[in-house]
Amino acid sequence: MIIPAAKTDLGSLRELIHKYAGRGPRYTSYPTAPEWTESVGEEEYWKHIQTTNAEENPRPISLYIHIPFCSERCTFCACNVIITTREDVADGYVDSVRREVDMIAQKISDRRRVNQFHLGGGTPTHLSPRSLERLLTHVSRHFQFDDEPERSIEVDLRVTSEEHLDVLRRCGFNRISMGVQDFSPETQEIIHRRQTIEETRDFIQLCRRKGFESVNIDLVYGLPLQSVESFAQTLKVVYDISPDRIALYNWAYLPKKLGHQRRIDESTLPSTEERFAIFRSAVEGFTSNGYVYIGMDHFAKPSDELTLAQKEGTLQRNFMGFTTRAGSDLYAFGVSSISSLDSIYIQNIKKLKSYDDCIRDGRLPIERGLELTRDDRIRRWVIMELMCNLHVSVRRFREMWGEDFHSYFAEEIPRLQPFIADGLLENDINKEVRVTDLGQIIIRPIAMVFDAYLTRAMKTGLTTPVFSRTL
User: Fold this and answer.
1) Quick one: pLDDT at residue 12?
2) Which of 126, 261, 368, 401 shows the greatest Cβ crowding within 10 Å of its Cβ?
3) Please, what is the Cα angle at 394 between 388 and 399, to 5 degrees?
4) What is the pLDDT of residue 315?
5) How confident is the model at residue 259 (pLDDT cuts 50, 70, 90)?
6) pLDDT at res. 9
7) Which run of H or of E encompasses 16?
8) Domain boundary at 371, 391, 419, which?
9) Residue 347 burial (CB count, 10 A)
10) For residue 361, what are the CA distances in angstroms to 100, 104, 354, 456?
11) pTM of the prediction?
């Protein structure tokens, strides 16, 4: 995939960047988290669990556990983390999560099977191997798993031992992801994430010897001192390591919201144009080295499940990123974790003590949530089709929702015309909305057209939430 440098009938790529660069949601959910409210809690959650259990063909289950601990804070991080080196804190947390699993699992119909299980953080392997195995075996005893579920985990290789890997393999984990961010020593020094090429290469080789089916790497662009030239050195190493998947995240610099990011000097950050140039060079590099550009921030090898799911039109997106397990209800455990059923989102409390207090009292540790209206579900479907499968079929929309696409989105369709004129969408609106190669890069502004909450805020002059940069 080669991103065109310019279009003679559209103006330069630089003009497109300035036209569409801004801030907007990543759409791991719709409606997005700022719309959620504390008025939705335990009562509503139980009701939706019962409703989904009672369906004639209940949806499969995806599980997520958030392990928030890190031994030190990376200055670029935007995750909900707790900095500690105390093993007793982590052990106590495992006890609380196990009790939360007990509360939810007993309400889930035994007709339902788990097809995906993911641990994220923080640093899940901050737990000792003993505590990690204690948690994983507890979950396996309380849920019914498919014969071949996806079990995946995010790790920091600097604190992940061979014993950790042995525990994970014993518990059936088959995918492992690790952050690299950037191999430049100068950038690593500023973001407090020191990790050598040799350490990374050796760890990945160890994971492959242990039998992990998929080894994935996370990179970040937009970090301090990055340039096209410096990031090219990181890319060369990644091409050689040849991970199965690559996530290339656009860094969100939010110093007003995240105090620790204020330690980074804004003058060291690449400009919008340089960020896009870095991303462009990465897209062209990965696709010329055999990877398929899945969309927005993910690449995968042609034989990978993500690639195959996109070809089949079954790719989905949730709080864990792109997923091949379409049509699953996501049950999440731990502080700040987010559950997603067909018609409700639920987020847990972010503070560890408050979380523990709720669990100790036998209450679900819910902070806020949202019950989705039919319009929310329709717009979510359209946004996810664009983000994941790169087109929305007018015919399929009618089959899914019993509505005429052009009538339902009569207000939105005219707002798609600039994207068509700029070569980001194909001009066949009567049959489908299809994203072009260049449009994949600018997919978030396209999806924002269908976001009723953003439209309402702009119309009424309300302050919109602070999102990350779209480009």
Assistant:
1) 59
2) 126
3) 95
4) 82
5) confident
6) 39
7) helix 13-20
8) 371
9) 23
10) 11, 15, 11, 40
11) 0.92
Among 271, 179, 178, 285, smallest CA distance to 225 is for 271
Please state, rounded to an integer, the average pLDDT across all residues of the chain. 91
Same domain, 13 and 152: no
Antiparallel, parallel or unpaired: β 432-434 and 82-83: unpaired
Domain boundary among 337, 371, 405: 371
Do strands 69-70 and 82-83 pair parallel, antiparallel, or not at all (unpaired)? parallel
Alpha-carbon span 446 to 452, nearest angstrom: 13
| Coil vs helix vs strand at 39 | coil
The two structure tokens encoding residue 281: 């060079």
In degrees and rounded to multiples of 5, residue 184 shows phi and psi of: -65, 120
pLDDT digits (tens, 9 = 90+) for 175-203: 999 999 999 999 999 999 999 999 999 99
Structure token pair of residue 241: 């390591």
**376: number of CA atoms within 13 Å, CB side?**
16
pLDDT at 112 (0 to 100): 94
pLDDT in tens, 292-332: 998 878 999 999 988 988 888 778 887 777 887 778 999 99
* 215 and 326 fall within a common domain: yes
Q: What is the CATH number of the domain that holds 378?
A: 1.10.10.920
Q: Do 332 and 412 fall within a single domain?
A: no
Domain that holds residue 388: 8-26+373-460
CB-based contact 344:48 (threshold 8 Å): yes
Torsion sign (Cα): 385, 386, 390, 391: positive
